[in-house]
Known about the structure:
Blueprint: E1 2-9, H1 13-24, E2 30-32, E3 35-41, E4 44-50, E5 57-65, H2 68-80, E6 86-93, E7 96-104, E8 110-119
Parallel strand pairs: 1-4, 5-8
Antiparallel strand pairs: 1-5, 2-3, 3-4, 6-7, 7-8
Amino acid sequence: MKRFHVHVSVDDVAANVRFYSIIFGAEPTVRKHDYAKWMLEDPKLNFAISRRGRAAGVNHLGIQVDSDEELGELRRRVASAEVALLDQKDASCCYAKSNKYWVMDPQGVPWETYHTMGAIETFGEHTPRQPQACCG
């Protein structure tokens, strides 16, 4: 299964948690002082917000998958388009440990495709070659 992912940079996490909880009709599944995430089933959406010193607005978009096999299939598809990829194995970002890759769309919006393997205690540990979209 694939789930659409949207990550928005915000100025005020608490105000945005209140707003999006009303919009989605649900409280966040992950809530930290600088981050919140909703894992919605209808629509299938992983929606995250964070206050990490960036300008408010869309931080990055992405697709979350359930397995490394599914991640590999999507990566092969993107590689066939001959666009630049940034692979990250065992990346630590957004309170999660994931295998992922990044591409930029023609407008310069980062796209993350990833398989999450578990939670971590800090927003982002230093992962080599971290893209600007997350934790960098």
